[in-house]
Amino acid sequence: MTSRLPTLLALFAPAFLPAALAAQSVWLSPAPPPAIRIVRETAHFGTAAAHIANERAWVAALRSKKVPVSYVGTIAASGAPTFWFFGGAETFAGLEQIDQAYQENRGLLKQLDTVMVRETKFVTEAQTILAAYRADMSYRPMFIAPETRHFWITTFSVHPGREEAFTAVMKAYVAAYGAAKVTIPWVTYQMVAGGSNPTFYLIVPMPSYGTIDADLANMAAVGSKFPSPAKLAEQFAGATDRVDTEVLTINPQISYVPEGFANQDKAFWNAK
């Protein structure tokens, strides 16, 4: 879909941008970026290999222009066949500046337009999401590290007008995880545009599926720290309309990360 072009470029901050602007989108660090943009593509079933090859061509085009920032590409390991691309910045204003500036690099646009023509063979639809970091609803917050291999992501669709109740539930979980001395980190983002509001994303960075086993093993300890589990469950049920959970697997071939980041785990991030 050609509409994906400015959206993804807004993640990347092309090389012609001022250094200060480009720096706003250099977000790959354990600290959660304040603003993120997610591009979610729904793919035709059975086209994964060809789709990945086309995404690699996109990465190659960016690398040829020495684009100084980064994004992470993931493929759903559960649920529908989807590709999720994550990029971040210090502010949404920084993302807007990139949106306005990318059109100046005609050479890059020409390369990417060729890739986009092929992309329509693999993608049935695309969704772009802007989301803001919620520190008050995050625990031992970390977004990504070189050893991260998956994101365990839960999407909460909240009833309008029930955001305060949902926030209280999430804060109770933060407190309970802390009291139980759980070491698994997670971050929460609140959608600001791109879908039905209010929507929240809880993202757990995982080095392996072992994180899922560890979290399930911790549930009894966490539950014991709630003052009133039944009341909390009732509050959660009243606040949420729908909950979707997926595991996304990072694919280094469709990710564009800085050399300094990749060199911390060359065997994975520089895999051909």
Which secondary structure elements does this structure contain, and how are they paired or packed?
Layout (H helix, E strand, L loop, with lengths): L3 H9 L6 H6 L10 E9 L4 H17 L7 E5 L5 E8 L2 H10 L4 H14 L3 E11 L16 E9 L4 H17 L7 E7 L5 E8 L3 H14 L5 H11 E11 L8 H4 L3 H4 L3
Antiparallel strand pairs: 1-3, 1-4, 2-3, 2-8, 4-6, 5-7, 5-8, 6-7
* Lateral arrangement of strands in the main beta sheet: 1-3-2-8-5-7-6-4
Q: Tell me, what is the CATH class of the largest domain? A: Alpha Beta
Which descriptor suits the 3D outline? globular
CATH topology group of the largest domain: Alpha-Beta Plaits
Largest sheet: 8 strands, antiparallel, barrel
What CATH architecture of the largest domain do you see?
2-Layer Sandwich
Summing up helix and strand content along with how strands pair, one would put the structural category as alpha+beta
Cα-atom Rg, whole angstroms? 19 Å
Beta fraction: 25-35%
Separation, N- and C-terminal Cα atoms: 27 Å
- The figure for the number of domains is 2
Question: Mean pLDDT, nearest integer?
Answer: 86
As residue ranges, the low-confidence spans are 1-25
Order of helices and strands: HHEHEEHHEEHEEHHEHH
Subunit organisation of the chains: single chain
Number of strands: 8
Number of helices: 10
Secondary structure: helix percent? 25-40%
